Amino acid sequence: MLELILSGAKGKMGRTVAELVGAQPDLKIVAGVDITRGEGDFPIYDSVYEIAQRADVIVDFSNPKALESLCGFAVERRIPMVIGTTGLDDIHKKLLRYSSEKIPVFVSHNMSLGVFLLVNLASRAAAVLGDFDIEIVERHHNQKIDAPSGTSLMIADAIKEVRKDAECVFGRADKSKRREKSEIGIHSIRAGNLVGEHRVIFGGEDETIELSHTVTSRKVLAAGALRAARFIVSQSPGYYSMPDLVKSLGGL
After folding, report:
1. pLDDT digits 0-9 by tens, 36-78
2. 2-107+218-248 maps to which CATH number?
3. In this structure, are residues 215 and 197 in contact, taking their beta carbons and an 8 Å threshold?
4. Beta carbons within 10 angstroms of residue 150's beta carbon
5. How far apart (Å, rounded) are the C-alpha atoms in residues 45 and 214?
6. ∠ CA(158), CA(161), CA(163), 5° rounding?
7. Rounded Cα distance, 134 and 201, in Å
């Protein structure tokens, strides 16, 4: 039995993770943490340091502001972490890297294997289609806080690995000039209850290629996080991401 602490337990993703855990006999949530307390299938605390229950792994879909206390708690208790929270800045990333020196830390802006494949295909296409313009368009629900999405930045970073001179341009409302060949345009749409869609457009002379991925249910992301939880508990301290998980599944 793999016992979990769920951070961000009352959020949309937290509730979806809890729903999936409830249907899997080898998993159990022993406690949750959120900005307000609660009771249900498991106790929810407003401070992670109030949790006395033993746990094998922490799954986090909360807010970047919660990371400092969450990392401190995890390192103190020597509990591996799966971080699905987006909107991280450089301070948060350094904090996770520091924590990974003490415990296993898995970080991904998107837990979908399909998105992992999209990122890889975009990187390969960017290498082959060297003269093509690249634009990334992402659509999410109207409650999403960060823009652009962490996934669109993952795609852009992968492209920049093969196009060393590439630069991200976020929208063009304030620019009155022609597009530079080195640009990766990133555009964010926030509307309704869209779960998540990413399109990577490669525009060439007289031809266009599009790669796209659409999530219609948060269950895809929750299932990926639980897959990552099963993976990370058997790892040594270190910083892990989707390529490590996919490799363990025989995909690389």
Report:
1. 888 888 999 999 999 999 999 999 999 999 999 999 999 999 9
2. 3.40.50.720
3. yes
4. 18
5. 34
6. 110
7. 6
Could you tell me if 34 and 84 are in contact, meaning their C-beta atoms sit under 8 angstroms apart? no
Return the HEC string of 19-63: HHHHCCCCEEEEEEECCCCECCCCCEECCHHHCCCCCCEEEECCC
Query: Residues of CATH 3.30.360.10 domain(s) within the chain?
Result: 113-215
Give the residue numbers marked as catalytic: 140, 144
Q: What is the DSSP letter of 221?
A: H
Question: Residue 125 in contact with residue 211, Cβ under 8 Å?
Answer: yes
Q: Domain 113-215 belongs to what architecture?
A: 2-Layer Sandwich (3.30)
pTM confidence score: 0.85
Tokens of 191: 């509307």
- Do the beta carbons of residue 9 and residue 44 sit within 8 Å? yes
Q: What is the pLDDT of residue 251?
A: 64
Under 8 Å between Cβ of 16 and 244: no
- Where in the chain is CATH 3.40.50.720? 2-107+218-248
Q: How many helices (H) and strands (E) does the chain have?
A: 7, 12
Q: Are 1 and 209 in contact (CB under 8 A)?
A: no
- In angstroms, the CA 47 to CA 61 distance is 15
For residue 140, give the H/E element and its range.
strand 133-140
The yes-or-no verdict on residue 125 having pLDDT over 90 is yes
Among 116, 147, 130, CA closest to 227 = 116
